């Protein structure tokens, strides 16, 4: 199942993830692309995986990683949380832990320079297991990023616009993108 947008193309060859946008008051919120595992039983553990992908204008050379890291740190510290400094061998990943109404939550953040003037920020939300990180890193390596016709505004979250070839179906408050149910 191919997912094609103005920012990237991606082949969801395994079909084990469903991608969607939230729909709020009839408006599609196309700045955060959510994904979830189709099956909660994963690697001998019953877990729920939810993640979100956003694209931020700017390149690593311009310091976009530092901007993203500092903004996440400020957001997490507001909730009296902790952000782990990136390690030398994986400088574009970091984790955060904070208290929410659901209790203690941990998130894992992966930032990837696309080489096209914007960066991909992928966040695994509460419920992921360590084996998910490696699977998601492999997933991000399959994204093929596209050059934009214009310079993306530094630090801005970019909207994602899908091509007409990408299957889309509104279900409740979600706009499903190339889900396995649509392919059959």
Question: What keywords describe this structure?
Answer:
14 strands, three-stranded antiparallel beta sheet, nine-stranded antiparallel beta sheet, Protein Transport Mog1p, Chain A, about 180 residues
Helical residue percent band: 10-25%
> Largest sheet at a glance?
9 strands, antiparallel
CATH level-3 fold name = Protein Transport Mog1p, Chain A
Q: How many helices does DSSP assign?
A: 3
Descriptive notes:
The chain contains three helices and 14 strands. 22% of the residues are buried. The longest helix has 15 residues, at 64-78. The strands form three sheets. It has a nine-stranded antiparallel beta sheet with strand order 8-9-10-11-7-4-3-14-13, sandwiched between helices. The chain has a three-stranded antiparallel beta sheet with strand order 1-2-12, with no helix packed on it. With 184 residues, it is α+β, with helices and mostly antiparallel strands. It has one domain (2-178): Protein Transport Mog1p, Chain A.
How would you summarize what this structure contains?
With 184 residues, this protein is of the alpha+beta class. It has helices at 64-78, 130-141, 180-183; strands at residues 2-4, 8-11, 17-24, 27-37, 41-42, 45-46, 50-57, 82-83, 93-100, 103-113, 118-124, 144-145, 168-171, 174-177. A hairpin with a 4-residue loop joins strand 10 (103-113) and strand 11 (118-124).
Write the layout of secondary structure elements.
Blueprint: E1 2-4, E2 8-11, E3 17-24, E4 27-37, E5 41-42, E6 45-46, E7 50-57, H1 64-78, E8 82-83, E9 93-100, E10 103-113, E11 118-124, H2 130-141, E12 144-145, E13 168-171, E14 174-177, H3 180-183
Antiparallel strand pairs: 1-2, 2-12, 3-4, 3-14, 4-7, 5-6, 7-11, 8-9, 9-10, 10-11, 13-14
């Amino acid at each position: 199942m191919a997912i094609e947008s103005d920012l990237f193309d991606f082949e969801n060859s395994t079909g084990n993830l469903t991608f969607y946008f939230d729909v709020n008051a009839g408006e599609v919120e196309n700045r955060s692309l959510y994904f979830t595992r189709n099956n909660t039983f994963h690697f001998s553990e019953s877990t729920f995986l939810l993640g979100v992908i956003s694209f931020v204008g700017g390149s690593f050379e311009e310091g976009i990683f530092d901007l993203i890291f500092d903004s996440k740190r400020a957001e997490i510290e507001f909730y009296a949380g902790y952000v782990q400094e990136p390690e030398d061998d994986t400088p574009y990943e970091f984790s955060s832990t904070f208290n929410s109404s659901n209790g203690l939550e941990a998130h894992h953040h992966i930032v990837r320079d696309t080489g096209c003037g914007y960066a991909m920020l992928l966040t695994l939300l509460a419920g992921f297991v360590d084996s998910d990180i490696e699977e998601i890193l492999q997933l991000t390596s399959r994204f093929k990023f596209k050059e934009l016709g214009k310079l993306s505004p530094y630090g801005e979250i970019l909207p994602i616009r899908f091509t007409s070839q990408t299957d889309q179906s509104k279900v409740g408050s979600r706009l499903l993108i190339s889900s396995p149910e649509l392919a059959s």
